[in-house]
Specification:
- The protein is an alpha/beta fold and 338 residues long.
- The protein is built from nine helices and six strands.
- α1 crosses α9.
């Protein structure tokens, strides 16, 4: 039984790490101060640095939220909920969440930021180049023993080539179809279908396994305004589709790249084992030792005893075939969302 409990405690540790990471993704998308902003026509030369570079890593695209689609200078949170829920389900309720894995990094475009497709794509290319430069510098600093980022984590952070090749632009806010009675509700599945985005190919696809084609989603395409399609500078291949279609299309592309060239980011379970297994083992040991031996730290005793009881409960549920599949962490979403 002790072996089962130890295994369950290690899994609980990983789940706690996942929940904490989920809450941070939510904060990154919903915090007024945490969202990267494009305030000028071009990305500033030092927009990316050690403290924010990882937010662009391990994501197959970047989500550009234009000023026209914002409300009072803010990005309404239910859009994040729709993106997160669709991404979570795509991965069969067990997505890779360590090391900044997510569908996209959010970049907010202010009133003074780029307004044309060409301007946004140009800024995106500059940001991507800065991310690559900072990551290279961080790896060199780590090699020289002067790194400020944990050496054991740095190899897990990569700028995905797909993120250079395709971007998402949210340029038109559609008021959510919510229900006021008996209480306020926004249905995320419905909004994932109602909200529309532009998918734009940047032309930077030389390292992909194959060219990107929109043929598979042409049947889902929506009209593009003339002022949007007539961009200054070079023309771009683009398509307007429902948000859910865009998410699934890009995730399918990343699966294609993983299958063709091998994922530079290990799958979720392998990732957790390689990076956090030592901490998980230490956590399991501390819980078992606190349970087995009396301690003067009463609060620690209560905490670890509760964790032990939860581990035993989950083991019993699994043996009875009652253990539910992983579900969306309610802390990640919002009481008003379904």
């Amino acid at each position: 039984m002790e072996t089962k409990i130890r295994t369950q405690l290690k899994q609980d540790y990983h789940d706690q790490k996942r929940a904490a990471h989920c809450r941070r993704i939510k904060a990154d998308w919903r915090s007024e101060f945490g969202i990267p902003k494009l305030k000028a026509a071009a990305a500033p030369p030092n927009a990316i640095h050690h403290s924010n570079v990882t937010s662009f890593c391990n994501k197959p695209t970047t989500f550009y939220w234009t000023a026209a689609a914002q409300r009072y200078g803010r990005c309404p949170g239910f859009i994040f909920g729709a993106v997160y829920k669709t991404w979570f389900r795509y991965h069969k309720n067990n997505p890779p969440l360590d090391h900044e894995h997510f569908f996209a990094n959010l970049v907010q475009i202010t009133e003074t930021g780029p307004k044309s497709i060409h301007g946004i794509v140009t800024a995106h290319k500059l940001l991507a180049d800065q991310v690559a430069t900072v990551l290279t510098r961080m790896r060199q600093e780590s090699k020289n023993g002067a790194g400020q980022f944990p050496d054991r984590l740095l190899p897990h952070y990569h700028l995905l080539q797909l993120s250079r090749a395709i971007i998402v632009i949210y340029d038109e806010f559609i008021t959510p179809d919510f229900v006021r009675e008996p209480c306020f509700r926004i249905f995320l599945d419905k909004e994932a279908r109602r909200q529309q985005v532009l998918l734009v190919l940047t032309g930077d696809n030389h390292e992909l396994s194959a060219p990107i084609s929109f043929d598979s989603i042409r049947s889902e395409s929506l009209p593009i305004a003339q002022e949007t399609s007539s961009t200054a500078g070079e023309p771009y291949d683009m398509i307007r589709v429902p948000l859910i279609v865009a998410i699934q299309f890009i995730l399918d592309l990343q699966q294609r790249e993983n299958a063709a060239v091998g994922s530079v980011n290990p799958a979720s379970e392998i990732d957790r084992v390689n990076t956090y297994d030592r901490e998980a083992a230490e956590y399991a040991d501390s819980v078992l030792q606190s349970f087995a031996h009396d301690t003067d730290a009463e609060q620690e005793w209560k905490f670890t005893t509760a964790n032990m009881r939860l581990a035993v409960k989950r083991i019993e549920e699994r043996e009875r075939g009652e253990e539910p599949l992983p579900t969306i962490d309610v802390d990640m979403l919002d009481p008003k969302w379904e």
